[in-house]
């Protein structure tokens, strides 16, 4: 056995003891029945719990340890929420049913980073009840590390559209061909989001967990002088059309995606900002306020 594998087994054994409340040890030798090695579970599992207590008592102890861990988790989340809560006026109390769902889901969150996200949810709901749906809580609870990473990368590219209270990611634009030139397809420019860190697999992941709509969405046709305004981390960006019949294309977050995006305060992706300028500069004037 190499040093690394020995360390892994030692770490695993400690983890098991923490969760079971008892250590596991290896049988001195394989069980033998009628001169033959025993088959089935005994042969597959050569380790057993080292304890003088019966199975029922061991099960009760494991449940007690689980309750202690859950209590520690929810106390950590609520303690963080008090630390994060700003000194503002609350619009009311969270719905009692929502709060019960929150506790039952958050008490299983042991990771400190994730606990902070749950604390932010409790703060947001305490200030403005109805900010986070139970569906969003359930999605966050089931989110894997890979899915959380995709949302993190997505958040740094999102612009906030105030009139729809939603987040979107500008992909590019196309110019509709004029009536006098119907054979032309019109000019089209698209941003490669992978260059800004949001790969296509990331996008598919967000779509699969219902945080992003599956189809690209288009704005209404913008005429010369008309504009679309988005907010990127408190900075307004105005996209003003230089000519007629310009259509912006974008990915849009779902309601659940919008709610979870509010938990992530990341600076605007600098590469994406450069790509926006470069891609749109021929047909749009970008003004940063």
UniProtKB/TrEMBL annotation:
<dbReference type="Pfam" id="PF10987">
    <property type="entry name" value="DUF2806"/>
</dbReference>
<dbReference type="InterPro" id="IPR021254">
    <property type="entry name" value="DUF2806"/>
</dbReference>
<protein>
    <recommendedName>
        <fullName>TIGR03899 family protein</fullName>
    </recommendedName>
</protein>
């Amino acid at each position: 056995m190499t040093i690394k594998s020995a360390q892994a087994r030692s770490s695993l054994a400690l983890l098991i003891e923490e969760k079971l409340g008892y250590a596991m040890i290896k049988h001195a030798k394989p069980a033998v029945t009628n001169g033959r090695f025993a088959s089935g579970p005994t042969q597959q599992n050569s380790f057993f719990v080292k304890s003088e207590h019966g199975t029922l008592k061991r099960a009760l102890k494991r449940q007690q340890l689980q309750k202690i861990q859950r209590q520690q988790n929810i106390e950590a989340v609520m303690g963080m929420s008090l630390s994060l809560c700003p000194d503002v006026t609350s619009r009311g109390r969270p719905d009692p049913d929502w709060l019960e769902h929150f506790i039952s889901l958050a008490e299983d969150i042991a990771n400190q980073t994730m606990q902070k996200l749950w604390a932010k949810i409790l703060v947001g709901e305490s200030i403005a009840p109805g900010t986070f749906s139970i569906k969003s809580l359930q999605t966050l609870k089931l989110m894997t590390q890979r899915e959380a990473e995709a949302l993190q990368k997505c958040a740094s590219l999102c612009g906030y559209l105030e009139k729809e209270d939603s987040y979107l990611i500008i992909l590019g634009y196309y110019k509709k061909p004029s009536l006098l030139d119907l054979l032309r397809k019109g000019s089209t420019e698209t941003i490669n989001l992978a260059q800004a860190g949001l790969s296509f697999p990331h996008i598919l992941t967000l779509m699969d967990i219902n945080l992003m709509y599956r189809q690209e969405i288009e704005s209404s046709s913008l005429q010369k002088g008309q504009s679309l305004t988005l907010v990127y981390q408190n900075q307004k960006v105005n996209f003003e059309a230089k000519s007629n019949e310009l259509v912006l294309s974008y990915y849009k977050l779902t309601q659940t995606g919008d709610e979870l995006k509010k938990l992530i305060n990341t600076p605007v992706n600098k590469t994406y900002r450069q790509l926006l300028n470069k891609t749109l500069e021929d047909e749009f004037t970008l003004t940063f306020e």
